[in-house]
Amino acid sequence: MPIVIPTRIWEYVVAAVVIILAPGPSVLFVIARAIAWGRATAVATVAGNVLGAFSLSVVVAIGLGPILQRSHIAFTSVQFLGGSYLIYLGIDAIRHSQIHASDMTSQGEIRPSKFKSARDGFWVGALNPKGMVFFAAILPQFIDRSRGHVTSQLILMGAIFAVIAFFSDGGWGVLAGTIRNWLATEIKRLVRMRVTGGTVMILLGLFTLISAVRQA
């Protein structure tokens, strides 16, 4: 499969950084592990998480690539559905921020092995609804249909996403592991993080809907 670089690759990198920095399910899971068991466990969790996210991006690319290559209607529909769902996820994150933050402080008493941490992180990344929506609805905006090989473009952008996420989420894990006591003793800080992430998801969803309307 040839490697085709989309013309808007740098715009995509900016969008990827924005969604990765927003504290969603994966980031909060990593922070929870860091608070409970420290930096090493958090980094192992991140490694598994980004592998799971990349696997998800490959599945989405293989399934959507050929369809998006052939159909403009499908391309626009995916954006509408994905943008709407991203807004829903953002609203849900804000509404349940208190519950989510409380859950983060309850990770059990037995420290998991590095393998188990990576395995748990993999499934969180592979089943992350934010990641699924991003790969299915946000990525297609940046493909260059005129260059062909849409599946290849989607897989490349998924790989870029995974690399950025590893360093970003790993940074969150190391930071949280370093100041774990400070985070664990003040639940409001975790609530604010969840609200911030929800707000970013809503804004990104609105951006997706606006882009879909312009291209319809």
Structural features:
globular, mainly alpha, 216 residues
Number of strands: 0
Backbone shape: globular
Secondary structure class reads mainly alpha
How many domains make up the coordinates?
1
Number of helices: 10
Give the C-alpha Rg: 17 Å
The fraction of residues in strands falls at under 5%
How far apart, in Å, are the first and last alpha carbons?
Answer: 30 Å
Mean pLDDT: 78
Most strands sheet: none
Order of helices and strands: HHHHHHHHHH
Low-confidence stretches: none
The helicity comes to over 70%
Describe the 3D structure:
There is one protein chain. With about 220 residues, this protein is an all-alpha fold. It has one domain. It contains ten helices and no strands. It has helices at about 10-20, 25-35, 40-70, 70-95, 95-105, 115-125, 130-140, 150-180, 180-185, 185-215. Helix 2 (about 25-35) packs antiparallel against helix 3. The longest helix has about 30 residues, at about 40-70. The model has no long low-confidence stretch (mean pLDDT about 80).
Write a brief caption for the model.
The protein has 216 residues and is an all-alpha fold. 81% of the residues lie in helices and 0% in strands. The protein has one domain.
